[in-house]
Design brief:
Length: 85
Amino acid sequence: MEDQSKLHTEVEISSRWLALINTRLKLNCLMANRQKFGCKAIDPVIVMKMWNSVLHDERGLPDNWILEPWVLVGMRVEHPLGHNQ
């Protein structure tokens, strides 16, 4: 029998998944920074197309959202009671 205290809840799994996806989004945006990476930077248009229909409130984002540090993947994660949101 498995120790139930060592199993992750659905909320924990969803939160970790969302954090991982948001980390990838931030990395993709950073890799598109031409000032930092010059000719090795990823084309920002490719990054924008890759994340199309995945971002939270995509219609409300500025045209060049790739430069915004607060853009997040569009999933709602439920927080367990007693945890910060």
